[in-house]
Amino acid sequence: MAPKLRKRAMETSRNCGATPMEAEDAAQDVLLRLWQMHDELERFRSLEAVVVKMARWTTLNLHRRKPMADVDAPTMTRLAASDATPAERMEELDNDEWLAQRLERLPSTQHTVLVMRQVERRSGKEIARLLGITEESVRTLLSRARRQLYEDIKRRK
For residue 76, is pLDDT > 60? Predict the structure, then answer.
C-alpha cells in the first residue's frame, strides 16, 4: 500500500509545480505523517484522498518557503550594466530591498499568487489549478496584493 500512496503523493506534488526532487521530499513527508498517525487512519474513508490533500499542502508550503534569490538576479545585472552613479545604484538597491520586505509581509497566499503570476509568468488558470482554487480567487488575491503594495508605495513617498 505504501508504494501506491507514495506514487500518488509524488504525482500530486508534481501537478502542483514541484520539481522531481521536491516531489520526492513531499512524498516522504506525507508518508512520515501517515506513519505518525497510523492509529487514526481507519477514520478516513479514502486514504488516497488524504494523501492527495497532504501532498498538495506540503508542496504549497515548500513553495512558500522558497527563497526569492532568482528575483534579485536581474536587478543586480541591470545595476551592474547601467551608467548610474553610485548614489543612484544605492538608492535603487534600497528600493529593491524595501520592496522585497513589503512582498514578504504579504499574506502567504497573496505572496504565492503574485510570485507565480509576475515572476514565474503563469496564467491565472494555471495558478488556480496548481493551488486548487478558482480563477476568481486568483484574481482577487492578485488584486489585493497589488493594491497593498501600491498603498505601501504611496505611503513611502
Answer: no
Q: How far is CA 22 from the centre of its chain?
A: 13
Contact call for residues 39 and 86 (beta carbons, < 8 A): no
Confidence of residue 70 (pLDDT cuts 50, 70, 90): very low
* CA 1 – CA 34 distance, rounded (Å): 12
CA 2 to chain centre: 28
Percent share of the chain, pLDDT over 70: 87
How far is Cα 11 from Cα 34, in angstroms, rounded to an integer? 17
Q: What is the pLDDT of residue 4?
A: 92
CB distance 103 to 149 below 8 Å: yes
> Residues 115, 67: contact at Cβ < 8 Å?
no
How far apart are alpha carbons 3 and 73 in whole angstroms? 40
Sign of CA dihedral 10, 16, 19, 23: negative
Q: Which of 120, 117, 153, 118 is nearest to 137 (CA)?
A: 117
Query: 91-126, pLDDT tens digit by residue?
Result: 888 888 888 888 888 888 888 888 888 888 889 998
Residue for cell digits 498517525?
Answer: 37
Q: How many helices and strands, by DSSP H and E, does the chain display? A: 8, 0
